[in-house]
Design goal:
This protein has 294 residues and is an all-alpha fold. The protein has one domain: Orthogonal Bundle (MetI-like fold), CATH 1.10.3720.10. Helices cover 76% and strands 1% of the residues. It is built from 15 helices and two strands. It has helices spanning 5-36, 54-60, 63-93, 95-100, 103-108, 110-113, 116-127, 133-142, 154-179, 183-191, 196-207, 209-224, 228-233, 245-255, 259-293; strands at 38-39, 49-50. It has a two-stranded antiparallel sheet with strand order 1-2. 28% of the residues are buried. The model has no long low-confidence stretch (mean pLDDT 82).
Length: 294
């Protein structure tokens, strides 16, 4: 079948993108596959010895790997839900203020502008048991202070830090989706004597379902693969209590020298993220079909 001029033009325009992907993604991916299937260390990186799926087997039977997976799963799910709930509430209740004063959006976005590693270092100084100002004043005023960074409190401390930094991202998504709802729909519902909570529950939230699903998926993936702020704030934690999957990969690679196992674990992390992305895309498609059918 002959190609049309539009098809040839499209292929020509896509050629730089395809070349970029092949050059900068295919080669590293091929190297990762080879290392994941090889017995390799820093001394043998140029001559890896293929061992099949032994690295994957070693990772899957490692209790620390499953502990890191459980931490990342809990952390990702909990922070995603809290951030989306807070972001949705802020988007709805602050919508009149943000609509009148656009500069407030910039103020609310400020936590996102700081690098996560810097946020981790900042809170590490603030919450340090001996040098931190918050434990000092809590002890001064109430006679005691919880150890925010010990094994029993570190998880919830990390959740609060993550939520404080990334709730503005969820707020931005929901604010855009909320103001894009046609005002005529709200006015028609108000004329039918619908109460505000009924408009929210029966009209506004159903029209924002796709955005809510996307925000939950993005924030879950970001929380699941968290590294920088956790590493700066607590590292792996006491007894590995705050070891995320990304920190597990880092320690296996740089501290343990187990390059094959680290790459195999990263491949499993990539596959898990791909599954979540695919599930989110399917959910979005399903919601869009239901909206069109309605």
């Amino acid at each position: 079948m002959r190609t049309t001029p539009q098809q040839r033009e499209g292929r020509l325009l896509l050629a730089p993108l395809v070349a970029f992907l092949l050059l900068f993604l295919s080669f590293p991916a091929l190297v990762d596959i080879v290392y994941a299937l090889s017995d390799v260390s820093f001394q043998t990186m140029r001559a890896p010895e293929l061992v099949g799926f032994r690295n994957f087997g070693a990772v899957l039977v490692d209790p620390e790997f499953w502990s890191a997976c459980w931490f990342s799963l809990r952390f990702g799910a909990l922070t995603a839900v809290i951030e989306c709930l807070l972001g949705l509430g802020l988007a709805i209740f602050l919508s009149p203020i943000v609509s009148r004063h656009g500069w407030t959006t910039a103020v609310l976005m400020l936590p996102m502008m700081v690098a996560p590693s810097m946020v981790g270092l900042m809170y590490r100084l603030v919450l340090h048991e001996f040098a931190g100002p918050l434990p000092y004043y809590l002890t001064l005023w109430f006679g005691t202070s919880p150890a925010f960074l010990d094994a029993s409190h570190a998880f919830w401390t990390l959740v609060v830090v993550e939520v404080l930094q990334w709730t503005p991202f969820a707020f931005l998504l929901f604010h855009v989706a909320y103001i894009s709802i046609p005002s005529e729909i709200r006015e028609a519902a108000a004329m039918d004597k619908a109460r505000p909570w009924q408009i929210l529950w029966r009209i506004e939230l159903p029209m924002m379902k796709a955005t809510i699903a996307i925000a939950l998926g993005i924030r879950f993936i970001d929380g699941f693969r968290v590294f920088d702020n956790v590493f700066a704030l607590t590292g792996a934690g006491a007894g590995g209590s705050t070891m995320s999957l990304s920190i597990y990969i880092y320690q296996s690679f740089f501290k343990g020298g187990q390059i094959g196992q680290a790459v195999a674990a990263s491949a499993l992390l990539f596959l898990a993220s791909l599954v979540v992305l695919y599930g989110g895309a399917m959910l979005k498609s399903h919601l869009q079909k239901r909206r069109l059918a309605a």
